[in-house]
């Protein structure tokens, strides 16, 4: 059974990688550079995680999606928009939302899956992480799976979202059971050296580790 893991370098996709390797005998790692402000750090984490799991170079792929930076409209890609901290429990779409990003990412992943014969795509989408993001809802992935069935040669590729309904604390606990290297992951939206500790992604990560009564192994500015 072949599977592709969409590995951003974040903790959610890392846990998905650990699970995919447990459930499948043949696993590929896919990373997207979409012009995000922390792209260099995320690529570094992708490489280190792939090295940790001894994924051969022939089963790693990095795709350039920096055209999303040209489109803009998100604080993650547009230098004129500051990454802000918001109410973690808000359902308002934050300015960190990258317009239609996940649909483009999944389309490219499905293309590669058809080439290598993978039938499963693991993605670390998490509703708590992005409560206002329209492309992090379970219904979105249900709909996209129907598109895949209709628009691919075999129609047998399925998106797997293992952590979509989990709180961050449960993801931490799940990853700990899978012995994933959280110290190699990165969640910060703002910094590429030490995590800022104040952006939404950092705050959710820190809250998750705190609720799980565990210490986050990465370092923070504050």
Uncertain segments of ≥5 residues (pLDDT<50)?
A: none
Reported by name, the CATH topology is Rossmann fold
Structure class: alpha/beta
**Beta-strand share of residues:** 5-15%
Query: How many helices does DSSP assign?
Result: 7
Total strands: the figure is 5
Give the total of domains: 1
**Amount of helix:** 25-40%
- The string of secondary-structure elements, in order, is EHEHEHHEHEHH
Distance between the termini: 44 Å
Instruction: Tell me which CATH architecture applies here.
Output: 3-Layer(aba) Sandwich
Oligomer class = single chain
The outline comes out as globular
What does this structure look like?
The chain is an alpha/beta fold and 222 residues long. The chain has one domain: HUPs (Rossmann fold, 3-Layer(aba) Sandwich), CATH 3.40.50.620. The chain is 38% helix and 11% strand. The protein has seven helices and five strands, in the order βαβαβααβαβαα. It has a five-stranded parallel β-sheet with strand order 3-2-1-4-5, with helices on both faces. The model has no long low-confidence stretch (mean pLDDT 94).
Topology:
Elements (H helix, E strand, L loop, with lengths): L1 E5 L4 H13 L2 E8 L5 H14 L7 E5 L2 H5 L29 H16 L3 E4 L14 H14 L6 E3 L7 H10 L22 H12 L11
Parallel strand pairs: 1-2, 1-4, 2-3, 4-5
Helix pairs in contact: 1-6, 6-7
Question: Which features does this protein show?
Answer:
222 residues; alpha/beta; Rossmann fold; 5-stranded parallel sheet; 7 helices; 5 strands; 11% strand
